[in-house]
Amino acid sequence: MSVTVRFAPSPTGLLHVGNARTALLNWLFAKKHGGRFLLRIDDTDAARSTKEFEQAIYRDLEWLGLTHDGTDRQINRMAKYSVAFYQLQAAGRIYPCFETEGELERQRSLLAARKLPPVYNRASLEPANKAKWEGEGRKPHWRFKLSRSKVRWTDLVRGPVEIDTATMSDPVLVREDGAFLYTLPSVADDIDMAISHVVRGEDHVTNTAAQIEIFQALGAPIPKFAHFPLLVGAGGEALSKRLGSLSLQDLREEGTEPLAVASYLAKIGTSDPVEPRQTLGELAAEFDFAKIGRAPAHFVPEELSTLNARTLHVMPYSAVAGRVPHGEVFWEAVKSNLNKLGDITDMARLVTGPVTPVIEDAALAAAAAELLPPEPWDQETWGGWTKAVAAQTGARGKGLFHPLRLALTGLEHGPELKKLLPLIGRDRSLARLKGQTA
Ligand code: GLU
Hints:
The chain is an alpha/beta fold.
């Protein structure tokens, strides 16, 4: 199976976790099948699209590790949309409409009052209306004439889907100022970029029915479709209300690991457990549309925080080299105590100081200071030394280890001392055992 997918965000805001999941699921599917992942900037809405948001999309995807195999902006491709438009027009599927937004709104409320679906009545197809409105000098917008029949596809997530396009309004393809709306450029690009699978949220299911008719009217092969349920909050509430606090930029600035974000977004709403993974490649290998359930996926920030910590606890040094101080031995000593990578600054202070020791048992601290062996130290040093301290003082268990930890680190809890001690070194250990800040 040859796979080409696209992620097609509109640069009208920052990428939030919902968009990121769309991007990720496309990327994982492409990687699983050795396919291509294209990034298409859907910027036909010139009034709302900005260069800053576009740059943010590139930056956020790069942070998440979702490399693309090609990219373009719709603004560069307008000529192709005109060609598609004329092709549809030649096929008799395009017609001009003259109603104002106010008139359409009135129509919709009349239908609503009669409990009928808000389907456009095609009044502009009536020659008398057309003549009248044209005579008034109204500028048209342009609609695609749906077949008003049943469109069927086998969705890779939803299974067999059937939508009667008689229940839908003919979509507006071109506004009266000549601007293309989303529907046609998306199909024209999907054809031109040979997209094999359109993978997107289930809010697009109805669009798909209209778009399949456009693929057909353009004589193009129809891609496969996968519409996954959207993200909701812990209590099932729509996430859109809180998107501001769930942008990738916020997560990055809060110090969340991109791999944890990806591992979380790849698994919520699926039959797989949420577990830490070490690479995106593992997530890709495990990816399958069949695992995606029909219920909404719950995005719970606290679960992401927990997964972030668990991801760090199993992270090899190679994944953080250059981002953390003191090399591999230090990383292995402290990683299981981190919730966020940024916590490592506090851990580094345990090694390099200053640490203000807490002397809980002065006699024990003094004996321990006396018994410190000469360097070089390694991970065996701790065992030999504490045994000697135990032998001399009679202290055991908590009565031995708690005062040593408080003296050496000033803290109740922390990384394993057998790993930390050689990094702290003899001079600082001695000073701290004597109650000196070091
Ligand atoms: N720009 C559209 C969106 O962000 C793309 C939808 C699609 O994948 O076709 O919703």
